[in-house]
Design goal:
Elements (H helix, E strand, L loop, with lengths): L2 E4 L1 H9 L4 H12 L1 E4 L1 H11 L2 H4 L6 H11 L2 E2 L15 H10 L3 E3 L3 H4 L8 E3 L1 H11 L3
Parallel strand pairs: 1-2, 1-4, 2-3, 4-5
Helix pairs in contact: 1-2, 1-3, 2-8
Length: about 140
């Protein structure tokens, strides 16, 4: 088991489309790895999920279902090191969390984060690349 950080951009895909690659990545992480959150990351995920523009695409209870998957087994870490490596300063919170949690992977759909891969020994992968790691290890 390893520690993994999901950013809000990757989780929106899981929220909006059942059986999507981002949802599969989230479910694989929950079953095989430890999902890590900080209070700042959790707050951003909740804020993004509550945006009215997503509401018309969601079935009743979908937001809570995805939040439950994320929160059920998440480990909360408190970043202590300030990072300024990402060109989008709002994304530095994910790098800070990854350091604090000792994460091996960040799963994201954000180009600003993906451009850093690998960062300080931490892989930064799209949901599809994260899922493909399991496909290659679970093949017969």
């Amino acid at each position: 088991m390893s520690n993994v950080v999901f950013d809000a951009s990757s989780l929106v895909g899981a929220l909006l489309k059942e059986d999507s690659i981002p949802e599969r990545a989230l479910l694989l992480a929950r079953g095989h790895d430890t999902i890590c959150l900080s209070r700042d990351v959790e707050a951003e995920i909740r804020e993004v999920f509550s945006r009215p523009r997503f509401g018309k695409y969601l079935t009743s209870g979908r937001v809570q279902l995805v939040l439950d998957v994320i929160m059920a087994s998440a480990v909360i870490a408190t970043p202590t090191v300030s990072v300024t490596d990402c060109r989008d300063v709002k994304d530095n919170k994910y790098l800070e969390l990854a350091l604090a949690a000792g994460a091996q992977t960040i799963v994201t759909s954000d180009r600003d984060l993906l451009a850093l891969d690998p960062w300080r020994g931490i892989r930064i992968l799209t949901p599809a690349d994260y899922v493909s790691r399991f496909d290659s290890t679970e093949a017969p």
